[in-house]
Amino acid sequence: MTLPLKKQLYKLLFICHEFPPIGGGAATALQNLTKKLAEEGHEVTILTIGLVKPYTYPKIPNLSIILLGNIRTNLLCISLLELVKSYFLLKFKAPLYIKRCKPDVVTSFFAFPSGRAIWRYLKTNNIPHIVSIRGVDAPGFNEKRLGKFSKHLIPFLIKPVLYSASVVYANGKRLKDLVENYFKDIHVSNIPNGVFNEQPSNIKKRGFLTYNLIFVGQLIERKRILECLEGVILFAKNTPKKIIFTIVGSGLLESDLMKKANNLPSNLTIIFKGHINREELSNLYNNQHVMLQLSQDEGISNTLLEAFSKGIAVLASTDVVYEFGKHTEFPGIILSSYSPIDIAEGLSNIFSDHEVLCRYFLTSLDLAKNFTWENNASMFIEQVKKVLHLKEVKV
Asked: What span, in angstroms and rounded, lies between the C-alpha atoms of 185 and 183?
């Protein structure tokens, strides 16, 4: 009788300047990936920068979270000064813990600041290094807003990191192409985010007495949330239907949005939810018809995948759907221009045929099956095996 092969388990150390996970960003992806790896039996450690205010991290077997400092004042995002401080904390403190932990592989979530902070130490000590490109660390990402920082400074900061790395992978084809188009001789693997495919409530029972719209994410310019709200208002003015637009998240544009929400058509209700826990968000998704995802630049958004897993139609920008290509059946409408008129027209087209909309719900569920954290973790472990094999060959 042939005994099954024993599964190879690894000591994996991750470095990320932003934790705890808020919203649908890189820290949420890191939490989901490391949780899955820990559940599979791998010994996982996260080195990160904590909040000034006390924060309780969930206790998960095989997963350790080590704070190298408590400097972040804003739960939502890190300031430029805090980013610089984080870089130096990672640079001078992380090597001590890496030496103590003796990981098989170190993974930097973000080529900068995480990768830049520790690449030289890892290279000197011959420790395999995986770099995960998450968004702002890709050359040209959100260049419209970040300007020279994205076009010139980011490439300068990440160049030695990428060339010294054992493996580089990106969250989605969009980020992969940005890096490879700038650094012609660097290969970037594509390991898109995943989603936990929870069974949604019966989507066939969603009624259409009220049109339910949702936005989830940071309330910032890059997410085009102001344009979304203006488009929804215009849509409401041209339909007799009652509309509820739920906005989940917070950010710099929150006060501007609230001002606009003071003068609405009588059939439109805006609900600002702020930050809510994952369980409440999951329940909120069940009753939605359409998610608005019109970001200017994006990898594979966690919130987009969550919409798919809950069978929600999507009004999306071309950047958001970059991963899927022209031949993928998409559960909604893709816009290439984003004026209030364009957004209102897109919503009108989505709701013009309820049978088509119900088919979008089912297409969303099918798409979600291609993006799971099981797949994400499996692809990541394949990269780990590749890195360790290359190390053995060199020895």
From this structure: 6
- Return the pLDDT at 199: 67
Q: 284: which residues sit within 8 A by CB, 6+ positions away?
A: 214, 246, 248, 273, 276
How far, in Å, are 17, 89, 142, 382 from residue 137 at the CA level? 13, 19, 10, 23
203: pLDDT strictly greater than 80: no
CATH of 11-194+372-394, one of 3.40.50.150, 3.40.50.2000, 1.10.1760.20, 2.40.10.10: 3.40.50.2000
Can you give the residue ranges of every domain in the chain? 11-194+372-394, 203-368
Model pLDDT for residues 118-169, shown as the tens digit of each residue: 999 999 999 999 999 998 888 888 766 555 555 678 888 999 999 999 999 9
The span from the CA of 124 to the CA of 393, in Å, is 18
Tens digit of each residue's pLDDT (9 = 90 or more) over 266-305: 999 999 998 888 788 888 998 899 999 998 877 788 888 9
Nearest to 170 by CA among 183, 160, 157: 183
Q: Does domain 203-368 have CATH number 3.40.50.2000?
A: yes
Helix (H, G, I), strand (E, B) or coil at 341: helix
Q: How far lies 96's CA from each of 93, 99, 206, in Å?
A: 6, 5, 54
**Residues 119, 121: Cα–Cα separation, whole Å:** 6
What DSSP designation does 150 have? I
The residue count for the chain = 395
